[in-house]
């Protein structure tokens, strides 16, 4: 009987608590009068890099979905602005134009259309690299690898409101469901594909006039895109002069066509290189290390894989 009274009392208390909570959490709020906004959901990032070696055919392209209380029908225009930035070592970011963004394209309401995948209106657009470069007051000759173009979108609706990257928090900007950053960074990249095994001819008078032929293997380093480990950075010279195989850790790096050599051999001597000439068939460079060993190497391209234009 004591237990029964206790259970009844506990049940009565819970019912009173829930009754009180209900009165508290359901006030008479006019939900229909709440204001709503709009955002642009990123459906596809078709192209978000510019190829340094092919700026003429590079583009920034997206597919966007307008999300609002009317399935995208409140959108009037979407303005797309751009500015250019470059990281200057020891200085920091340098922006062009320094005064702010430049308008490069405006999407109209008529650019948004129904689609078969959702109820919201969608649009696809592209901006060429040349259009972006011109908009910020530069020329293709001014562009360098690792430059970044910042594209910022501004959605204007028929109520006179504007929404942009400062209107959203991190959840809306980056969460997969919303995917609405309103800002997209397009990097100028320099694709590099120098990995392979190549025939070479090496001339050096370090230990007497010698012409050495052989093969050199360049292996891509996964952790350092554009860098390649070299199996023999002396290109047969140690075998010719000392009868010893070369040992060490040396890499050749390709920074938008500018080739450099770094690393050391088993004795701690460091290596460097200077490109003499380059064409589709032959890459010619001088190499030297801090011990004083040196030579001139002509590396032949492989069938169907010419050396890229612009190596220097």
From TrEMBL:
<feature type="signal peptide">
    <location>
        <begin position="1"/>
        <end position="25"/>
    </location>
</feature>
<protein>
    <recommendedName>
        <fullName>DUF1735 domain-containing protein</fullName>
    </recommendedName>
</protein>
<keyword id="KW-0732">Signal</keyword>
């Amino acid at each position: 009987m004591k237990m029964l009274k206790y259970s009844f009392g506990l049940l009565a208390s819970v019912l009173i608590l829930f009754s009180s909570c209900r009165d508290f959490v359901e006030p008479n709020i006019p939900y229909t009068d709440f204001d709503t906004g709009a955002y642009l959901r990123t459906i596809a990032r078709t192209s978000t890099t510019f190829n340094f070696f092919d700026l003429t055919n590079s583009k920034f392209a997206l597919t966007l979905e307008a999300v609002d209380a009317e399935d995208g029908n409140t959108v009037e225009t979407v303005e797309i602005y751009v500015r250019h930035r470059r990281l200057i070592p020891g200085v920091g970011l340098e922006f062009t134009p320094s005064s702010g963004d430049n308008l490069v394209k405006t999407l109209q309401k008529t650019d948004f259309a129904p689609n078969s995948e959702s109820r919201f209106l969608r649009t696809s657009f592209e901006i060429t690299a040349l259009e972006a470069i011109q908009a910020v007051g530069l020329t293709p000759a001014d562009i360098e690898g690792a430059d970044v173009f910042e594209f910022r979108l501004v959605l204007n609706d028929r109520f006179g409101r504007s929404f942009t990257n400062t209107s959203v928090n991190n959840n809306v900007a980056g969460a997969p469901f919303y995917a609405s950053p309103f800002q997209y960074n397009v990097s100028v990249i320099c694709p590099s594909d120098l990995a392979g095994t190549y025939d070479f001819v090496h001339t050096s008078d370090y230990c007497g006039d010698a012409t050495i032929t052989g093969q050199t293997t360049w292996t891509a380093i996964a952790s350092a895109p554009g860098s390649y480990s070299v199996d023999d950075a002396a290109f047969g010279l140690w075998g010719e002069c000392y009868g010893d195989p070369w040992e060490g850790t040396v890499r050749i790096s390709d920074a938008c066509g500018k080739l450099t050599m770094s690393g050391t051999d088993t004795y701690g001597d460091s290596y460097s290189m200077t490109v003499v000439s380059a064409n589709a068939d032959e890459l010619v460079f001088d190499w030297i290390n801090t011990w004083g060993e040196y030579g001139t190497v002509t590396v032949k391209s492989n069938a169907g894989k010419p050396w890229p234009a612009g190596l220097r």
